[in-house]
Design brief:
By secondary structure, the protein is mainly β. It is built from no helices and 11 strands. Strands 2, 4, 5, 6, 9, 10 and 11 form a 7-stranded mixed sheet that branches. The protein has a 4-stranded antiparallel sheet with strand order 1-3-8-7, with no helix packed on it.
């Protein structure tokens, strides 16, 4: 099991940038795929981005493609989500998730471990 802690959320103006981090503790982070999801008030949790265990393969939701970049540093047990050109509709609680597998996955139920979330608020 992997324990995950997100950080880096905050308040930012539209068009700005934030970098979210997901610190993982537990053995074998490099054997886990990592995903980012978000949930806005009154909405269901939605997929944002995913990265394979070795970082060679990534996958993005259409709504963030070209603006967000997912990455990982297996030596430091950290996953990251660089968010650029933020829009009002990006406002949500962002969660990182991990699954003991090599691929990259876009369905929340495919992930076993979750962080507590970090709030991202984009203002006009």
């Amino acid at each position: 099991q992997m324990q995950l802690v997100e950080s880096g959320g905050g308040l930012v103006q539209a068009g700005g940038s934030l970098r979210l981090s997901c610190a993982a503790s537990g053995h074998g982070f490099s054997s886990y795929s990592v995903g980012w999801f978000r949930q806005a008030p009154g909405k269901e949790r939605e997929f944002v981005a995913a990265i394979s265990w070795n970082g060679d393969s990534t996958y993005y939701a259409d709504s963030v493609k070209g603006r967000f970049t997912i990455s990982r540093d297996n030596a430091k047990n950290i996953g990251s989500l660089q968010m650029n050109y933020l829009k009002l509709e990006d406002t949500a609680v962002y969660y990182c998730a991990a699954r003991y597998a090599s691929g990259r996955y876009r369905v929340a139920d495919e992930y076993d471990d979750w962080g507590q979330g970090t709030q991202v608020t984009v203002s006009s």
